[in-house]
TrEMBL record:
Gene3D superfamilies: 1.10.8.60, P-loop containing nucleotide triphosphate hydrolases. This is Sigma 54-interacting transcriptional regulator. PROSITE patterns: SIGMA54_INTERACT_2, SIGMA54_INTERACT_3, SIGMA54_INTERACT_4. It comes from Polyangium sorediatum. Keywords: ATP-binding, DNA-binding, Nucleotide-binding, Transcription, Transcription regulation. Residues 214-445 form the Sigma-54 factor interaction domain. It comes from the Bacteria. PANTHER family: TRANSCRIPTIONAL REGULATORY PROTEIN (PTHR32071).
Length: 582
């Protein structure tokens, strides 16, 4: 074992990507499991098939690779290839107790293992209507896997994923297969590998073609979308997390379009719009007269999505009573409409759920059922806020503008000017894609007004974008001007610290450019340099006809700061200088 650990450590230190570290980890684990099988009571009657590494820190998957026995390296699981993830029950034990779990697939028996104590709990999940016994087991058996072992990937205080090994041994059905010694060795190897798997970057995924449902895909989102592409082909529930407006509904439709149910109905239910007392009825339907006010029959979202996909958004708003009903549907695939005495109905539905809340915290607070949380948290994907994928902003802006231009039945073309793109990238987006869409619509309307309603050739300039952004925050708390200025100062200090670490210096005198930024912003918003000077209390400069040179001096300071920060191209206000001096 010591030699095995030394070889693993050397391989992990040489790895440069998560995928490389995953292969370095799976190879000795599969070898050790095969060696133990060959020397055990089932020698010659079984075989180790494959191993999988699941990296899922926090609320979403980051990496998923598979390695077949005898393969030279691990490979990321891709769309169109068979993939099975351990059941919700297995992940629940692994995540909650940080212990290994073994599964007798044929019998549906889950056995958690705690160290040298051996088997401490046995949870039997057998029966025709249980998700694991009927669906997960069927897919594993299609891959010839009769036994599964899952060990956690542990860091101090947290479980960041798991490693699963599959085996085929008909002779061991109903009998012990994964011995405590073997599980202990697998766990030790996983513990050594966990920090490397968590820290190493993902290999760049292959370029994905754009489509109508996902027309823009930046570098940071590419890996998440690649994961979602694999998950879309499964039947297990996908949990879509991320802030409001980040695109969960769009991704849900995108997943449905790539699922086995793509030709069937896609139904969406936003629980923000449903009062607590109507949630059960909106989910499962009601018969006429089922309650006061039920004057017509409602089939319910589950029935409307029959054979297809149901996306339940804002799942954290589900009442505890409705949570119990949804859990029953997920586990038994059966439900009953309110007031229906004719019997239960079959739920032939793929479930996708969305939330912007921390469901783990809601469980601890007693607001969300723990068993439902683990049932829907099998395939979690967390979307990034728009501020963390700023490379997408110009492309989304162009897409949204073209769509808005087409909706207005306009001819000609519409485009976003380069300086307008810069203004959008520099802005903060707490409302994410939804907020960006609103800003583009508002800026488009401002551009139309400026053009007298003509739509043959529309260009969103920086002044349109800045005015559109200026209307934000009217209905809620707005940062003070000083708070905004302080954020800008913190950004400059952050850059100075970065340069200090690299042995460089950012000159404080460059901060004098702030005066020019204010002046240039005012000139763009007011439409002229003269109006900007008057707005800012410098009408005398205009009267003395010194405003052109004064403006140019201030903008030169801005350009010096821009160059010092390593940005190429024209300065942000150069067009204003040139406009009145050519």
């Amino acid at each position: 074992m010591q030699e095995l650990l030394a070889a693993l450590c050397a391989s992990l230190l040489a790895a440069r990507t998560f995928e490389g570290a995953a292969g370095a980890t799976l190879a000795p684990m599969l070898g050790r499991a095969a060696e133990a099988l060959g020397a055990g009571r089932h020698a010659g009657r079984g075989r180790i098939l494959r191993g999988m590494v699941h990296l899922r820190p926090g609320d979403g998957y980051r990496g998923l690779v598979v390695m077949e026995v005898g393969a030279a390296a691990a490979r990321p699981i891709e769309a169109g290839t068979p993939a099975h993830l351990p059941s919700a029950s297995a992940w629940r034990w692994v995540a909650t107790y940080g212990c290994a779990v073994t599964i007798d697939v044929t019998l549906g028996k889950v056995e958690p293992h705690l160290g040298e104590g051996g088997v401490v709990v046995r949870e039997k999940l057998a029966g025709p209507d249980v998700t694991f016994g009927r669906e997960s087991a069927a897919r594993l058996l299609e891959r010839a896997a009769t036994h599964l072992a899952v060990v956690p990937l542990r860091l101090p205080g947290s479980v960041i994923g798991m490693i699963s090994l599959e085996a085929d041994c008909q002779a061991a059905i109903g009998r012990p297969f994964w011995g405590p010694e073997m599980l202990g060795a697998l766990q030790l190897l996983a513990d050594v590998a966990a920090p490397h798997l968590a820290a190493l970057p993902m290999a760049p995924p292959p370029a994905a073609p754009a489509d109508e449902l996902l027309p823009v895909l930046g570098a940071k989102m590419a890996g998440l979308v690649q994961m979602a592409r694999v998950f879309a082909e499964q039947e297990e529930t996908i949990l879509l997390g991320g802030p409001t407006g980040a695109g969960k509904s769009r991704i849900a439709r995108w997943c449905h379009a790539r699922s086995r149910r793509k030709g069937k109905r896609f139904e969406a239910l936003d629980l923000m719009t449903v009062p607590d007392e109507l949630q059960m009825g909106e989910l499962f339907g009601w018969k006429k007269g089922a309650f006061s006010g039920a004057v017509t029959e409602n089939p319910g979202a589950v029935a409307r999505a029959d054979g297809g996909t149901l996306f339940i958004d804002e799942i954290d708003k589900l009442s505890l009573k409705a949570q119990a009903g949804l859990l029953q549907v997920l586990e038994e695939r059966r439900y009953r409409a309110l007031g229906d005495g004719s019997g239960e109905r079959r739920a032939d539905v793929r479930f996708l759920v969305g939330t912007n809340a921390d469901l783990g915290a809601a469980v601890l607070a007693g607001k969300f059922r723990e068993d439902l949380y683990y049932r829907i948290n099998v395939l979690p994907v967390k979307l990034l806020p728009l501020d963390e994928r700023a490379d997408e902003i110009p492309q989304w802006a162009h897409y949204m503008l073209q769509r808005r231009h087409a909706e207005s039945a306009a001819e000609g073309r519409a485009r976003v000017a380069p300086l307008a793109e810069r203004a959008l990238v520099a802005a903060r987006w707490p409302g994410n894609l939804r907020q960006l869409d609103n800003i583009i619509r508002r800026a488009y309307a401002l551009a139309l007004v400026e053009h007298g309603g003509a739509t043959s050739e529309i260009t969103l300039e920086a002044r349109h974008v800045e005015r559109a952004l200026g209307y934000e925050g009217g209905g809620g708390a707005k940062d003070s001007a000083f708070a905004s200025i302080r954020r800008a100062a913190e950004a400059v200090v952050d850059e100075a610290e970065r340069r200090e670490a690299a042995g460089e210096v950012l000159d404080l005198d460059l901060a004098e450019a702030f005066r020019g930024v204010v002046l240039g912003t005012a000139a763009r918003r007011k439409g002229s340099k003269e109006a900007a000077f008057r707005l800012l209390g410098k009408a005398g400069v205009v009267q003395n006809r010194n405003h052109q040179k004064a403006f140019r001096r201030e903008i030169e300071k801005v350009n010096a700061l821009v160059r010092a920060l390593g940005q190429d191209g024209a300065g942000p206000f150069d067009d204003l200088v040139e406009k009145d001096e050519t």
